[in-house]
Amino acid sequence: MNMHSRPAPVVLGTAGTTADDVLAVARRGAPVELSARALDALAAARRVVDDLAAKPEPVYGVSTGFGALAVRHISPGLRVQLQRNIVRSHAAGMGPRVEREVVRALMFLRLKTLASGHTGVRPEVARAMAGMLNAGITPVVHEYGSLGCSGDLAPLSHCALALMGEGDAEGPDGAVHPAAELLAAHGLAPVTLREKEGLALLNGTDGMLGMLLMACADLAALLTAADVTAALTLEALLGTDRVLAPELHAVRPHPGQAASAANMLKVLDGSELTGHHQTGHDGVPAAPRVQDAYSVRCAPQVAGAGRDTLAHARTVAERELAAAVDNPVVLPDSRIESNGNFHGAPVAYVLDFLAVAAADLGSIAERRTDRLLDKNRSHGLPAFLAADPGVDSGLMIAQYTQAALVGELKRLAVPASADSIPSSAMQEDHVSMGWSAARKLRTAVDHLTKVLAVEMYAATRAVELRAGLTPAPATRAVLRAVRDAGVAGPGDDRFLSPDLAAAEGFVRSGRLVAAVESVTGPLL
Q1: The domain at 211-520 falls in which architecture?
Q2: How far apart, in whole angstroms, are the C-alpha atoms of residue 291 and residue 300?
Q3: Which residues form a coiled coil (predicted)?
Q4: What is the mean pLDDT of the chain?
Q5: How far apart are CA 53 and CA 45, in angstroms?
Q6: Contact 420, 430 (CB under 8 A)
Q7: Which of 60, 144, 294, 349 is catalytic?
Q8: What value does the mean pLDDT take over residues 270-291?
Q9: What global pTM score does this model have?
Q10: What is the pLDDT of residue 285?
């Protein structure tokens, strides 16, 4: 992240927060501002908490213990210690550090909820969190510690701990220091938490939601890339593009399917390679097939189902973005009520759904790659696309690597949300495991990028081996761009890993789709 060339500020409290806002803060370092409306809402909700704190009746989160310990009434003299202690005790994460963009998304989404005026924290707490984000101070958060219920407790606690000037954090230069040192270096003061504020900083689905929003953005790009790689493979296999006709997809009106088919048609427009599966061409006898294999013919149906799953996930994410998740929550009529809105089931389910879609998209891409490499099914291509099969192994082991990634994608598709382990002395006896679903989806998105890169690498090589036939203009644009990116074409065996890494970078950066769109215009 370049903290020195930030985009426009994201202002909280003036309009609904969008997915683009989250990505701007998490990935591009956009500064955050609190509107006058947000500050007024914070102050009004705080007055409600202060009024209840002054009364003798116990109120959860204000004058009681937490979770299974909520039966104890806490006297006013112990309440600052109570809020400090919940943060310290709940900052119990273990394992590797969570990525910077995830922590920034988590912090921003918690700040968004604070600014809604439903949590009862003081305006200075919200200002302090905005100050940390704007200074590029990112608390150290660990992989394990959230069950996706009662909020992403340990991850959010590590963020609150840094706000208090405790624990460790990463500075804008990427170096880790004690949080107190980083706050002081940027002119920020540690926060002393008062009634309800410790709890309000911990009790949200912010981590899993932030990861969902980023995964949605990444998968949207990969679904378009998958349409491109499928089209390249269809072309390399001399397949037919007649199965992509809009009228065929209109009779099964799934919108994602129609979009994927339309993208593939755009890529293949003007190709001399398509449609040769019955007529043959110079040096290649006519193939006796009347239709292509499922992995080629059904590419729009599979990628389209992924698109429709993504659309549903985005609907859930938008609803969660509009929510103010806390327990207890401050209502407009000045009541504070306990609730179960922190349960992560809605978010956890779609995180798992997307992992299933990513696994299947990777699976069909791997099957297409395998078909390109098998001389018995590739309709005239050399075995493994090798220069001299037998002396050269070509892309044989590239498919092994791809298959290993697909195997892992299938394991990552096992739903986390189907599990639940009771916690807090059975007070929290059903949890969502949404954080775990989000973590494995991030891995799945990374693996899918690599799988599509291998297909692209094989398909571009195969197209170049089809001498005598001119590929589509969009394909030619891909070939030029991928070679300019340092991905070598056909030839003798060489050290393959650098080529595959370059191919991965080409897909991940969006240059594959950009190359196509330079000819076709925008894809869906």
Answers
A1: Up-down Bundle (1.20)
A2: 15
A3: none
A4: 94
A5: 13
A6: yes
A7: 60
A8: 71
A9: 0.95
A10: 52
Residues 6+ apart with CB under 8 A from 148: 205, 208, 344, 347, 348, 417, 431, 432, 433, 434, 435, 436, 437
Q: For 168-188, what is each residue's pLDDT tens digit? A: 999 999 999 999 999 999 999
| 279 burial level (CB within 10 Å; 0-12, 13-18, 19+) | exposed
- Judge whether 400 counts as a catalytic residue: no
Whole-angstrom Cα distance, residue 512 to residue 230? 13
- What is the residue whose two structure tokens read 């040192």? 181
Sheet holding 138-139, edge to edge: 138-139, 168-170, 176-178
Helix count and strand count (H, E) for the chain: 19, 9
User: CB–CB of 300/249 below 8 Å?
Assistant: yes
Retrieve residue 44's tokens.
Answer: 């009004």
Give the pLDDT score at 287: 54
* Cα 455 to Cα 472: distance, rounded to the nearest angstrom: 18
CATH number given to 10-204: 1.10.275.10
Top pLDDT among 297 and 60 is at 297
Same fold for the domain at 10-204 and the one at 211-520? no
- Domain borders along the chain are 10-204, 211-520
